[in-house]
Design goal:
The protein is an alpha+beta fold and 74 residues long. The chain has three helices and two strands. A two-stranded parallel sheet has the order 1-2. The chain is elongated.
């Protein structure tokens, strides 16, 4: 998971930049991201509401949010 690695090491060490607080991934990738990030300070955050465009109906956005919440404990 290159995105998770980048979140843990956003810049070369010589710049003294620490990890980010969280990496945002689609709900189906939360379990893999959490496994990759285990032992680091970086958290996994699930995106929802038809990210990144948001171009969907309210019904679809609410269902997308429900799916993201269901996966957060995995």
């Amino acid at each position: 998971m290159t995105l998770c690695h980048k979140a843990m090491h956003p810049a070369p060490e010589r710049y003294g930049v620490g990890p980010v607080a969280a990496v945002c991934v689609y709900p189906n990738l939360v379990p893999a991201a959490k496994a990759f990030l285990r032992g680091s300070t970086v958290k996994a955050a699930a995106v929802a509401t038809y990210f990144p465009s948001g171009q969907s109906s309210l019904k679809t956005k609410l269902e997308d949010t429900r799916v993201a919440l269901q996966r957060r404990g995995r």
